[in-house]
User: Which sequence fits this backbone?
C-alpha cells in the first residue's frame, strides 16, 4: 500500500487529503485515482503538478515500494 | 541555521531579540517580516499548507545556498502554516553577516524564493468565498534575479 | 516616522516588537541592525559624536525622501551616540510598506546614507590607540546607487 | 558673541569643543581662530570642512547675528 497525499487545490478537487492505496507504480496509481474520480484524474495530469516519492521529487514513472509515501504537488504558491 | 514551520503565531521582535544576542563579529543583521494584509476587509483569513518534512528540507537547501553565496554567519527562517488572521506575521527571515550588503541581499533572495518557489499552497478566505493564490508576475521576476 | 539619537544601549528586538504591532495593511517590514564588531580585539570601543538637533534634522530629511520614494507606511531610525562596546547595536532602521521590495530598498537606501553621509563623527579606540574613521570606498559607491 | 562648536577631529586639534567668541562674520571668526591656534586654522580651511550657522549649512561668508551658533563640521563619517 502507498500512502497517497494531495496538497493545495488537488485536495479541494478530491475532497480528501490522505489515503492508503494499493499501487505498484506512479502510473498505476494515477490510473487508479483517475478511474475512481475523473476530475481528480484531470487535475493530476494538469500543468505543473509534481510528484514526490518519499519526500523527493521524481520525474516520469517509478515503481513504488511497499509503504511508499507519494505526494501530488500542484504548482507551489510560495508563503 | 534553521527553518521552523509552525501553526502558532509568533512575535518578530522576540525572534530578532534572540537572533541578535551575543554577536561580537557580526556587523549586520537584516530581518524581514511578512504580514497578512486585511486588504480593506477583502481577506479575513489566509490558509497556508506545507508538506511537513519536505517543505523544511527544500527551504533548508536554499538557506544553505544563501549562506555560502553571502558568507552568512547565521540565518533563521520561521514560517506560519494553517489559518492566519490579518495583521499576523506569516514569515520571518533574519540574516547575520559581517557587512550590510551581504545581509541585505541574502534576506532579499530568501524572501524572493519563499514568496514564489517554496513548497506552500496558499488560500485566501474572505466574504466573497475562497481562492487559491499563485505567485504574482512580480514575485516570479523578482525571484529570477538570483538565478 | 521618527529619528532617535541616544547614548543608552537599545535592544533591536524590543524596537521591532513595538514597530510591527497593530499593522493591518502593512505587508512587509524590514529591519536592519548594525552592530559594533570586536574585530578580534582590535577595537575596544567606538565613539560616535552627533551634532544634536542638526543630525536629527538631516536624517529626518532623508527619511522623508525615502518615505515618498518608496510609499512607506512608517519608518523608525534609532542611532547610538557616545561610547559603544563591541557586540552592542549602533543603529536600527525599520521600514514598513505594502510590499517587500519597497521595504527592502528603503532600508537599504537609509543605511547607505547613514553609513556614508549622515552627520556623525566616529572614532575607533583600541589597544593601538585611537583613530577617526571615514566612510569606506564601498560605503561611498553603495550610497551613490541612489543618487 | 557667537557660540562656536567644533566636531570630530577638529575638536582633537583644538583641544576644546565649545566656546563663546566675538565675531561679526564667518571669515572674521576663522581669522580669529587661526590667529590664536595655527593648527586649528589650517584644519578649518581643510578639505571638506563645512560650516553650519544656526544648524543650517552655509557656503561662503555670512554676517553673524548676536548669539549665532556656528558649527565647524569636518567630513562626516556616517554612523
Assistant:
Amino acid at each position: 500500500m502507498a500512502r497517497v497525499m494531495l496538497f493545495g487545490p488537488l485536495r479541494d478537487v478530491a475532497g480528501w487529503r490522505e489515503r492508503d492505496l494499493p499501487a505498484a507504480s506512479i502510473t498505476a496509481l494515477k490510473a487508479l485515482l483517475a478511474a475512481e474520480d475523473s476530475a481528480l484524474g484531470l487535475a493530476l495530469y494538469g500543468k505543473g503538478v509534481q510528484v514526490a516519492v518519499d519526500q523527493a521529487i521524481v520525474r516520469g514513472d517509478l515503481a513504488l515500494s511497499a509503504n511508499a509515501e507519494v505526494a501530488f504537488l500542484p504548482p507551489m504558491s510560495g508563503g | 541555521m534553521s527553518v521552523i514551520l509552525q501553526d502558532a503565531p509568533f512575535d518578530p521582535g522576540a525572534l530578532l531579540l534572540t537572533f541578535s544576542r551575543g554577536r561580537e563579529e557580526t556587523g549586520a543583521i537584516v530581518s524581514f517580516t511578512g504580514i497578512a494584509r486585511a486588504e480593506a476587509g477583502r481577506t479575513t483569513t489566509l490558509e497556508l499548507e506545507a508538506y511537513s518534512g519536505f517543505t523544511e528540507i527544500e527551504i533548508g537547501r536554499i538557506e544553505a545556498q544563501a549562506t555560502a553565496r553571502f558568507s552568512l554567519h547565521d540565518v533563521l527562517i520561521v514560517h506560519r502554516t494553517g489559518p492566519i488572521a490579518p495583521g499576523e506575521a506569516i514569515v520571518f527571515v533574519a540574516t547575520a553577516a559581517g557587512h550590510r550588503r551581504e545581509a541585505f541581499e541574502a534576506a532579499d533572495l530568501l524572501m524572493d524564493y519563499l514568496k514564489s518557489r517554496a513548497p506552500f499552497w496558499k488560500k485566501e478566505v474572505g466574504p466573497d468565498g475562497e481562492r487559491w493564490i499563485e505567485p504574482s508576475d512580480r514575485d516570479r521576476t523578482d525571484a529570477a534575479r538570483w538565478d
Chains A and D do not touch (no CB pair under 8 Å). The mean pLDDT of chain A is 95. Helices of chain A lie at 9-14, 26-36, 38-44.
